[in-house]
Q: What sequence folds into this?
């Protein structure tokens, strides 16, 4: 177990997916640029898998040095393979932390590789700062993983006051829980996005009169529903006329490859109106949000980031059930009739007009600044922490 230090100097940021890296990138850069911090990057999960685009290269292209690559060895999307991968990843992080000796580990979210990284850090005696805790997603096992990471973490950066209160409800002291807003909004506010012509050039495709961005993931607490639900969605999309369909492929969750195969088949048979990507990358993804007419699927991005563009999101099924929903999010059941009704509402000019001035419930795009201010002042003398009972409020 490493020796404890009062001041934070070496900060290890863990990233396992393209989406999570896009959210973390402003913070990673801020840590790198601050002279009193030493940035360490530990890259794992989907970043290292060829099937998901080897997106660690995007990190290197952004000018960052990867200090440790931890191979999760997850080549299948079965429950057995994912469970074994957690164990393998935990072993890898045990070695990584021994080599890096960080003063703080920063993790975001709720994925299995982040659980492994957090367990290893906790056992190593390294304090953890957790971003996006306190949220609920009742349809996915991410829900339990997220709350487990909260209990292993010392610092908490939540995206709303409701989620801050929930982290406190889990027994975390209010003085260590900070509502900073959704960190993904930082890039939207500060990144120069591609205009429509530049975006079309970047994807080698000219958008039709309408365009839709689709990201659909398996609902991991349901048994074998991915194929049925995604087929219902494809049936609805197939009815749209003069519409470009842009698919971003799902992550490595259980049954994710079923959806990937269905996307590949659909695009192969509908090249005149559809295209797909393993990873759009942050710039193209955010630019896409700016130019499409509606976002469809069950990704958290449709709830956290898309509303900043005042675009409709159609949120299908229970994967995101429990999250605070902005006005622009239309919830529907995972069947064709319900999806059709949601699409009709999303494309209604009156609905589009109604959401143009919606309240932003996930912050103003200054999460990185707030997190950095807290880290600069933070002295962690011990990671021992009493359970904070609500009766103390």
A:
């Amino acid at each position: 177990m490493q020796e404890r230090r009062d001041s934070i100097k070496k900060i290890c940021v863990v990233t396992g997916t393209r989406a999570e890296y896009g959210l973390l990138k402003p913070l990673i850069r801020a840590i790198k640029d601050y002279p009193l911090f030493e940035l360490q990057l530990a890259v794992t999960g989907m970043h290292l898998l060829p099937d998901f685009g080897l997106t660690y290269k995007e990190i290197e292209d952004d000018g960052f040095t990867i200090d440790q690559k931890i191979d999760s060895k997850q080549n299948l999307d079965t429950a057995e393979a994912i469970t074994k991968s957690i164990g393998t990843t935990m072993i890898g992080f045990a070695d990584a932390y021994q080599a890096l000796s960080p003063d703080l580990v920063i993790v975001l979210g709720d994925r299995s590789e982040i659980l492994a990284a957090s367990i290893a850090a906790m056992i190593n005696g390294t304090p953890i700062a957790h971003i996006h805790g306190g949220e609920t997603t009742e349809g996915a096992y991410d829900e339990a993983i997220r709350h487990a990471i909260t209990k292993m973490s010392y610092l908490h950066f939540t995206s709303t006051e409701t989620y801050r209160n929930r982290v406190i409800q889990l027994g975390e002291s209010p003085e260590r829980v900070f509502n900073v807003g959704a960190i993904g909004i930082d890039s939207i506010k500060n990144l120069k996005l591609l205009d429509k012509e530049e975006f079309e050039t970047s994807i080698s495709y000219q958008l039709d009169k309408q365009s839709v961005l689709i990201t659909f993931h398996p609902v991991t607490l349901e048994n074998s529903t991915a194929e049925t639900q995604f087929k219902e969605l494809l049936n609805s999309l197939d009815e749209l006329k003069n519409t470009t369909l842009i698919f971003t492929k799902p992550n490595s969750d259980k049954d994710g490859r079923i959806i990937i195969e269905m996307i590949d088949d659909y695009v192969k048979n509908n090249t005149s109106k559809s295209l797909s990507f393993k990873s759009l990358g942050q710039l193209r993804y955010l630019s896409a949000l700016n130019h499409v007419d509606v976002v469809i699927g069950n990704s958290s991005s449709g709830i956290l980031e898309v509303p900043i563009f005042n675009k409709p999101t159609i949120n299908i099924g229970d994967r995101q059930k429990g999250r605070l929903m902005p006005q622009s999010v239309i919830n529907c059941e995972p069947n064709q009739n319900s999806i059709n009704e949601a699409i009709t509402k999303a494309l209604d000019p009156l609905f589009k007009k109604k959401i143009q001035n919606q309240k932003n419930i996930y912050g103003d795009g200054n999460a990185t600044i707030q997190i950095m201010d807290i880290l600069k002042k933070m002295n962690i003398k011990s990671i021992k922490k009493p359970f904070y009972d609500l009766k103390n409020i």
Q: What stands out?
A: Residues 345 and 351 are 7 Å apart (CA to CA). DSSP finds 15 helices and 13 strands in the chain.
